[in-house]
């Protein structure tokens, strides 16, 4: 009877240890999954921020291009006027 009790206690201890080990593994897996989820969320936020910055940069570039085209047109018109003035003054 005594051997049976000792065997029972040993079995219970082994099962408890096994459950504790399994629980520790589950806790670690959950912590790892939670960390991975947080990392993924941070990466998504960073990507969204980068996309927003890229859209802003593109809009700024388009505005700068439009201003450059307008300046080029004004310069071309000024050159044409200057040419006409030179032609008129050379005829006189």
Structure description:
The structure is a single chain. The protein has 92 residues and is an all-alpha fold. It has one domain. 98% of the residues lie in helices and 0% in strands. It is built from 1 helix and no strands. The radius of gyration is 39 Å and the shape is rod-shaped. The model has no long low-confidence stretch (mean pLDDT 85). Residues 39-58 have a biased composition (Low complexity). Keywords: Signal. Residues 1-19 form the signal peptide. Residues 36-58, 72-92 are annotated as: Disordered. This is Lipoprotein.
Summarize the helices and strands and which ones pair or pack.
Elements lengths: L1 H90 L1
Largest sheet, strands/sense/barrel: none
| Tally of separate domains | 1
How big a fraction of the residues is strand? under 5%
Give the averaged pLDDT, no decimals.
85
Q: What sequence of helices (H) and strands (E) makes up the elements?
A: H
Tell me the number of helical segments per DSSP (H or I, 4 or more residues long). Answer: 1
Q: Termini, distance in Å? A: 135 Å
Shape: rod-shaped
- The helicity comes to over 70%
Signal peptide: 1-19
Biased composition (Basic and acidic residues): 74-83
Biased composition (Low complexity): 39-58
Region (Disordered): 36-58, 72-92
